[in-house]
Design goal:
241 residues; Dihydrofolate Reductase, subunit A; alpha/beta; 10-stranded mixed β-sheet; 18% helix
Length: 241
């Protein structure tokens, strides 16, 4: 069931979490036909200014924002708060094979914590002040739940899984999201990478059907999907000292 919500209430479910409980939010921007970029990889910007402002509002709300190494290599994002008032979150990149460029913009020294999640069997040398989280790699990737457990131990309670689409898909498939915000722009790209890639179901009735609220964001429509009922237990975040 989809209900239409007022944008003033959009973040209300996020604020109602218990003080020490983990809250994991996924975010995607896509076209009407479910693409996150054109066939050539161009994606700036699919969503309207209002959609981008919402993304920055989410960044200001959370303790840490997570991206995969593919997003860093393709877009070199800053992952800072620029469109709204608020603090910059910690910036976390999942980089199992050590591909992160030393000059990546998310490594900039601006007072925000910077974290690299990488393979435990890799000798990683990070710039000064950057935290390294070594985790076991299986089948070429790191278990999303293990990543979140490690981030919880670092004191991060509210975590935004921002991109790319494959990273968000992995966290969703692993049932590690409390909510998913999908911002749909009114355009058709025809081809390009898909927003979500999940294990297939044989019958329509087996599809995931979370409660959904819809919000108008300028020319975009935001779908707020409540996935909390299927989220696996991950643990309680350690309080920062």
């Amino acid at each position: 069931m989809i209900t239409v919500g007022n944008t003033e209430d959009l973040l209300a479910p996020l604020r109602s979490r218990p003080e020490n409980d983990l809250l994991i939010i996924g975010q995607l921007g896509q076209s009407l036909d479910g693409r996150v970029a054109t066939a050539t990889g161009h994606s700036h910007y699919i969503n309207t200014a209002e959609g981008l402002t919402h993304l920055h509002r989410l960044r200001a709300f959370v303790d840490a924002v997570v991206v995969g190494i593919g997003t860093v290599l393709a877009d070199d994002p800053q992952l800072t708060v620029r469109r709204v008032e608020g603090p910059n979150p910690a910036r976390v990149v999942i980089d199992p094979r050590g591909k992160l460029p030393a000059k990546a913009r998310l490594l900039a020294e601006d007072g925000a914590r910077r974290v690299i999640v990488t393979a435990s069997d890799r000798q990683s040398v990070a710039p000064a002040g950057v935290e390294i989280v070594p985790l076991r790699v299986q089948d070429g990737s790191i278990d999303p739940a293990e990543i979140l457990k490690a981030l919880a131990m670092l004191g991060f309670r509210r975590v935004l899984i921002e991109g790319g689409a494959q990273t968000v898909s992995r966290f969703l498939a692993a049932r590690c999201l409390d909510r998913l915000h999908v911002i749909v722009a009114p355009l058709l790209l025809g081809a390009g990478p898909a927003s979500l890639t999940l294990p297939p179901v044989d019958l329509v009735q087996h599809a995931l059907r979370p409660p959904v609220r819809a919000f108008s964001l300028g020319g975009d429509v935001l779908f707020d999907c409540d996935l909390s009922a299927q989220r696996v237990p991950i643990g309680v975040a350690k309080k920062s000292t």
